[in-house]
Amino acid sequence: MEATQSGCLFLLLLVTCKLSPEVATEVQESTDGPSDSQEPVWLTDVPAAMEFITAAEVAVIGFFQDLEIPAVSIFRSVVQNFQDVSFGMSTDSEVLAHYNVTGNAISLFRLVDKQLDLKSEDLENIDATKLSIFIGTNNLHLVTEYNPVTVVGLFNSIIEIHLLLMINKASSEYKESMHRYQEAAKLFQGKVLFILVDSGVKKNGKVISFFKLKESQLPAFAIYHTLDDEWDTLPITEVIVEHVRNFCDGFLKGKRLKENPESEEKTPKVEL
Predict the structure, then answer these.
(1) pLDDT tens-digit series, residues 82-117
(2) What is the CA radius of gyration of the chain?
(3) pLDDT (0 to 100) of residue 229
(4) Which of 48, 121, 165, 259 is deepest in the core (most CB within 10 A)?
(5) Cβ atoms of 267 and 209 closer than 8 Å
(6) Which among 160, 195, 221, 229 is positioned nearest to 13, based on CA atoms?
(7) Are 148 and 23 within 8 A, CB to CB?
(8) Mean pLDDT value across the chain
(9) Phi/psi of residue 80, each to 5°?
(10) Residue 2, pLDDT above cutoff 80
């Protein structure tokens, strides 16, 4: 997996890139608890695999030549922990060849950008925790909720522009706002990563303050370029698809609503 090559001031401000024990704990906590039982879907030919992948925002597929290796049972054991991910398995030689698998592999396909692979050598020492971290940190959707787990995947994406919606999930307007935000995300698929930041979560305060926003200005959008740390903000009263489109289009064309001289300065790098 290739990380975005930049200073990533925002990333350094908020997290470290290492998968720390705290991140592992976050993954474990997010996947613990009762859930509906699910099993991986068997993919018996190339058209079935292609349809399965294109129908999901995030799909994880185990490509196995040998069903007796330990990675197979480990793969099955984590499936029920991720209810927002589609899981599939295939042993079909044509399917494996289509996805350039020569041994065994577990691949994660993201609708928003790219494919990530764990090859045979990666699977030799895999366990349920490592696989859960791989899936949890790279589980990016059309709209991804910001947390200490997903932030790693967000900055490992090839997409350099991030749009953040900062809104309290407990607010009355949250449900309708998210519906419109999801619709707007489809317009910028492959160009902009859409992120939800719950302003009701205390530890998200540093994200809000980084963009020089106050609680009284929320909800708000913040758009951020990971390569050069350029950013802009737009306080809003409600999420409107047309406003999202105009804000993103303007930023992509190099237009900013207002100058943010602070974003040009070297903000002290602190760890969240």
Answers:
(1) 999 999 999 999 999 999 999 999 999 999 999 999
(2) 20
(3) 87
(4) 165
(5) no
(6) 229
(7) yes
(8) 86
(9) -70, -10
(10) no
Is residue 156 within 8 Å of residue 138, measured between CB atoms?
A: yes
> Binning pLDDT at 50, 70 and 90, where does residue 26 land?
low
> Residue 31: is its pLDDT beyond 90?
no
Give the neighbor-by-neighbor strand order of the sheet with 105-110.
Answer: 41-42, 86-90, 58-63, 105-110, 115-118
Output the DSSP codes for the chain.
-----S--HHHHHH--SS--HHHHHHHHHHH-S------PEE--SHHHHHHHHHT-SEEEEEE-S-TTSHHHHHHHHHGGG-TTSEEEEE--HHHHHHTT-SS-EEEEEETTS-EEEE-HHHHTT--HHHHHHHHHHT---SEEE--TTHHHHHTTSS--EEEEEEE-TTSTTHHHHHHHHHHHHHHTTTTEEEEEEETTSGGGHHHHHHTT--GGG-SEEEEEETTT--EEEEE-SS--HHHHHHHHHHHHTT--SS--HHHHS-------
Quote the CA–CA distance of 129 and 24 in Å, as a whole number.
7
pLDDT tens-digit readout, 164-188: 999 999 999 999 999 999 999 999 9
